[in-house]
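Issue 218. Parser rejects a valid record. Input:
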Amino acid sequence: MPRATKGEGLGSQLLRSDLVLIAAALIASGLGALLVHSATRADSGSAYLVRHLLNLGIGGLLALVVVRLDRATLRALAPFVYLAGVLGLVLVLTPLGAEVNGSRSWIRLPGGFSLQPSELAKVGLCVALPMLLAPAAERRQRPRVREILLAGAVTAVPVLLVMAQPDLGSALVLVALALGVLVVSGASWPWLAGVVVAVAGAVTAAFTTPLLSPYQRDRLTAFLDPSADPLGIGYQTQQVRRAIAGGGWGGQGLHEGEMTSSGVIPFQETDFVFSVAGEELGFVGAAFVVVLLALVVGRIALAGMRSEDPFVRLVCWAVAAWFAVQSVENIGMNLGLLPVTGLPLPFLSYGGSSMFACWAALGVVVAVTREPARRGGRRALGD
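Output the parser choked on:
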């Protein structure tokens, strides 16, 4: 396993990393700061902008800490990261948890801050599943039944805890992440089909039982029939689509969006930040957001494809599946193509937990895919 050369500086480590990936994530986060500020400045001035930049700074520092680790260390820490995420999901169901919009997904912290443990659970699953399934690939075999069942149990624990909040969107992301890892690990198709059937059953149960809160059920109902709109949620999604359509090709100008400036779209800095890009930057700006996120996902997936290390490959595909599914869902709900689930847009939406988790996951990818240092034209000992 490659390790950082003793005494090697952080700068030289980063120079041996995927600079295109890092640059794309930084540009997306910076653009997100502009969009968040535009969505909130009428009511809150620069307060959200300052917090967003603070979240970005903390997320960046967290990524730099993770980047200093090597593959062996990350693999050894995987169970602890996973257990920390599970512990957070358990705590959120206790009196420490806070309910927002019908979902008990948050833990209040001093200073007006809050933490969403489901975001940490995504990072935990991105390293825990590869840790469990990589040994099979290292043996050049398909995962054994015991390994697949263990991976299923490791996935089921956070998924069930997230559904208990309830948070259907995050649960689906966790399942998609796990499914991506199983596919790349070489699991046989009956197991993959079983996962799909289980997900379909869970979604059906969410619709047909009191599992979801009335607020969440109304969001899904409004997607199927905007006229059946008891809480005005269908109206909200219609306003989002109007804002995006009003941007045309070139947009109305940053901070000049008519609907964004009027504040008629609730949660625009979080769930619907893409609509700010659509209205103020137009089709060109919205397409640029899509290209940035596609570049992040593509570079991570490409790094996984190029790696001969099974653990690295599975980690990359886990993170790529997470970012891809969450981006598609968020943009889809902005366009009215998918139901509103409250998932943030990676790197762009306002929210500390999402920003920390995204940058931590990016740090993991950079750490495991970083090219080993060379000494005198040859690879360092142990590479």
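Fixed in the parser; the record now loads. The chain has 15 helices and five strands.
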